[in-house]
TrEMBL record:
Transmembrane segments: 12-32, 77-99, 111-132
Source organism (scientific name): Lysobacter enzymogenes
Ranges in coiled-coil conformation: 35-62
Keywords: Coiled coil, Membrane, Transmembrane, Transmembrane helix
UniProt protein name: DUF2721 domain-containing protein
InterPro entries from the UniProt entry: DUF2721
Length: 160
């Protein structure tokens, strides 16, 4: 008959190995959201590139070029976010693996599982900060676009 204390130790290890799955789930959700944002920004940039190709008015060209540059910055922020999130996923998987290995190594890894988990959490934090920066850029661009349209509409109203 197996020793109940040893059996409960194995269950505790398996339970501990599952815990990083919660972090993995949250990180995966952020990855999906970030990938969707990336796709939308890239689509918008491609649309504006196509418009730029057909635009002859110099002021309109300058406006589109400035917006395309901002979209490129947003794409880079989102890409950085994705890289950070993939790093976090790696750290959380490593955490789970380190917990299992630590049990077989008679707990000689000491702080490795905790260190990996902290690393993953810090990477998620950095990714969230980056996504906040990108969201702020997005709203600023929208505000500028709305202001430009309002200014153009009010300018038209005064002439007509």
């Amino acid at each position: 008959m197996p020793d109940p204390l040893q059996l409960s130790s194995h269950y505790a290890v398996v339970s501990a190995m599952i815990t990083p799955a919660f972090f993995l789930t949250a990180t995966a959700s952020l990855l999906v959201s970030s990938n969707n944002r990336l796709a939308r920004v890239v689509d918008r940039m491609r649309q504006q590139l196509a418009t730029l190709e057909d635009t002859v008015d110099e002021h309109a060209r300058q406006y589109l070029e400035a917006r395309i540059i901002l979209h490129r910055r947003r794409v880079r922020l989102i890409l950085t976010c994705l890289q950070l999130l993939y790093g976090a996923m790696t750290a959380f998987v490593g955490t789970s693996l380190a917990i299992g290995i630590d049990q077989f190594a008679d707990y000689r890894l000491r702080g490795v599982p905790t260190g990996l988990a902290m690393c993953g959490v810090l990477l998620v934090l950095a990714a969230c900060i980056n996504m906040g920066r990108e969201a702020r850029m997005s709203v600023s661009m929208l505000d500028a676009e709305v202001k430009r349209e309002f200014d153009r509409d009010h300018g038209r109203g005064k002439r007509g």
